[in-house]
Amino acid sequence: METQMEHQIATYLGGDAMLTALGSDTQESFRALAEGRCGLHPVGRPCPLEAAGSFAPGLLEALALEGLTPLESALVHCAERAVRESHLDPGGEECALVISTTKGNVSLLEGRTTPPDEAFLYTSACRVARRLGITRPPVVVSNACISGVTALIVARRMILDGECAHVIVAGGDLLSEFVAEGFRSFKSLSPGPCRPYDATPEHGLSLGEAVAAVVLTSDPARAKLPAVRLEGGAVTDDANHISGPSRTGDGLHYAIEGALREAALPRERLSFVNAHGTGTAYNDAMESRALDLSGLSDCPVNSLKGALGHTLGASGVVESILAAEELRRGVLLGTAGFERLGTPCPMNVSAESRTLAMRHCLKSASGFGGCNAAIVLGLEQFAGDARRQEAAPRERSCRVTARWELPHTGEPFAQVVRACYHALGAPNMKFFKMDDLAKAAYVAAEELLAGQRLGERYAPTDIAVVLENTSSSLDTDLAHQRIVEQHLPEGCSPAVFVYTLPNVAAGEICIRHHIQGEESFFVTDAEHPVAERYARRLIARGAARAVICGRCEYLAGNYDVRLMLLEAEEEQPEGK
Q1: CATH hierarchy code of domain 398-568
Q2: How far apart are CA 7 and CA 104, in angstroms?
Q3: CA 292-296-299 angle, 5° bins
Q4: Residue 182 and residue 484: Cα distance in Å, rounded?
Q5: CA distances from 189 to 387, 480, 507 (A)
């Protein structure tokens, strides 16, 4: 539930910056998109791809900073530009940093049997924070392809909860053989530039690389003009499949409804939807169903991935910045590659950019692990479109109702986790296909929830899963990298690649227990835990009634798995 403080705080989008296949700043990228240019072309490095969105030659080299990797240097570059545009001192106590990425410096795993320090996402984020002069510990969101949108939601909540007044949200992922060969193993790469929502028989996604940053602030004087506000957001899970989207679209529908509800905005006030739009048949079909369920089939929709490629952890940040620009300029960008609708439900898609009367928009994303996210952005001048809130609901308190820790018996991890699994007495053949991180999460959640009857006491959307660790998915990353380097005729294993995202472990819990509320994964160190505090705030604000949260760490046989169940204290009738 919202607090009284929230009713006095608006969250504005301040300065921004980006590097994409179409430009080295926001204006250049937007202009190229408006002109109908496509940034997808054949590339030879880091591996051959028929169509991908890559940076201009020499761009990363020109931005290189001593002691930082190319990705870190680019993140610093974009963050510094966004900070300057917002006239902000990043070293102040009121400024925080949230980074979204799926794989970070994953290319550093090449030829290695153990990960270097820079391959740890939190270590990398700390290097960026130090270079920017930020004194607070950074927050790292690694939530598959919804990472960028989730990061914006997390940042907004930090401001609304009074943790800080300004948050730099920076997202980035670079093209890598690691990711390209993984998607190739799923046979999901397009033979040419991807064509979102089109009837083409050659469905598939095109990869891209991008880095972007935007400042979120409670100070209207630091807003980029015309002022745009982040008005609401929600994260959900399909509870259906770790690598395939829901066939019904219900998970994304719940995220859209949650974002609109938090924004208190009637759907009729949305001017357009910037959707995920990867160009794969299953994703596009799912989105059409979700928009239909949400009553948005007639609302103008666009996807930018046909021009920029799928930029993974950067996509939600890049596309949200560009969606805000569409609102400011009154221009709806076209969907590159679209000719004829090929989705099962109607969608209002156009290949051409056009002028449009703007008020608010919705940005959505979906990813592996079954996760979905949506946010509502709106021009400040139309803030009155929101339904009037008569009074601020009271915050909910919560309590710990269960705890469980994977024991350390002196036996190897494989024996420990197998013994715990067999002790459950609930056979599930999928367990043996999971990686070790997911096995640890699965067993811990089974033990934690034994006898809790969550499914009987709560609706699926009222339960959330929030996990954290330090190593992300590095153990499985190393396994996938070894396969990549063998260049086998049959290619890589999709069964391995899908677990190179840490949130998939949380997704397995959601599937097993039919949990469709928020599913989020943070990467941090043991000294700066995030999950429990974040989970408590979800309950306090009414975004969940029960949350499975805690630490789920596994790397090279070493593990630290400690989960707890938080539940809302039920409100007592007055006079009791």
Answers
A1: 3.40.47.10
A2: 36
A3: 135
A4: 8
A5: 43, 18, 23
> What is d(CA 504, CA 437) in angstroms, rounded to the nearest whole number?
9
How far is residue 266's CA from residue 307's CA, in Å, rounded to a whole number?
Answer: 31
Measured distance CA(563)–CA(91) in Å, rounded:
34
**d(C-alpha 277, C-alpha 335), whole Å:** 9
Integer Cα distance of 75 and 169 in angstroms:
10
The answer to whether the CB of 13 falls within 8 A of the CB of 229 is yes
User: Helix, strand, coil proportions of the chain in percent (round to 5)?
Assistant: 40, 25, 40
- Structure-block tokens of residue 473: 């998915």
For residue 394, the 8-state DSSP code is P
Q: SS3 of 9, please?
A: coil
Cβ-in-10-Å burial (0-12, 13-18, 19+) of 45 comes to exposed
Q: How far is CA 100 from CA 39, 363, 523, 549, in A?
A: 23, 16, 10, 20
Task: Dump strand ranges (E) for 88-227.
Answer: 95-100, 139-141, 166-173, 210-217
Nearest residue to 175 (alpha-carbon basis) of 303, 47, 42, 23: 47
pLDDT for 65-104, tens place per residue?
A: 999 999 999 999 999 999 999 999 999 889 999 999 999 9
The pLDDT score that the predictor gives to residue 562 is 98
Three-class secondary structure of residue 289 per DSSP:
helix
Instruction: Sort 437 into a burial class: Cβ within 10 Å, 0-12 / 13-18 / 19+.
Output: buried
Residue 536: Cβ within 10 Å count: 18
**In this structure, what DSSP letter does residue 248 have?**
S
Better-scored residue on pLDDT, 46 or 120:
120
Whole-angstrom Cα distance, residue 177 to residue 239?
30
Distance CA 468, CA 483 (A): 27
* 3 state SS of 334: coil
CA–CA distances in Å: residue 107 to residues 61, 89, 174, 469: 16, 32, 9, 21
Provide the mean pLDDT of the chain: 95
Residue with tokens 């999928």: 430
If you ran DSSP here, which 8-state letter would residue 570 be given? P
Q: Can you spell out the DSSP letters for 334-359?
A: P-TT--SB-SSS--EE-SS-EE---S
What distances in angstroms separate CA 451 from CA 1, 170, 402, 456, 515, one per listed residue? Answer: 28, 41, 10, 11, 16
Where exactly are the structural domains of the chain? 5-385, 398-568
Inform me whether the pLDDT recorded for 47 exceeds 90. no
Contact in structure between 203 and 228 (CB atoms under 8 Å): no
Q: Do domains 5-385 and 398-568 have the same CATH topology?
A: yes
pLDDT digits (tens, 9 = 90+) for 422-479: 999 988 989 999 999 999 999 999 999 999 999 999 999 999 999 999 999 999 999 9
476: closest CA among 494, 458, 453, 452?
Answer: 494
Indicate the fold that domain 5-385 takes in CATH.
Peroxisomal Thiolase; Chain A, domain 1 (3.40.47)
- Locus of tokens 């408006």: 34
Amino acid at 9: I
pLDDT at 1 over 50: no
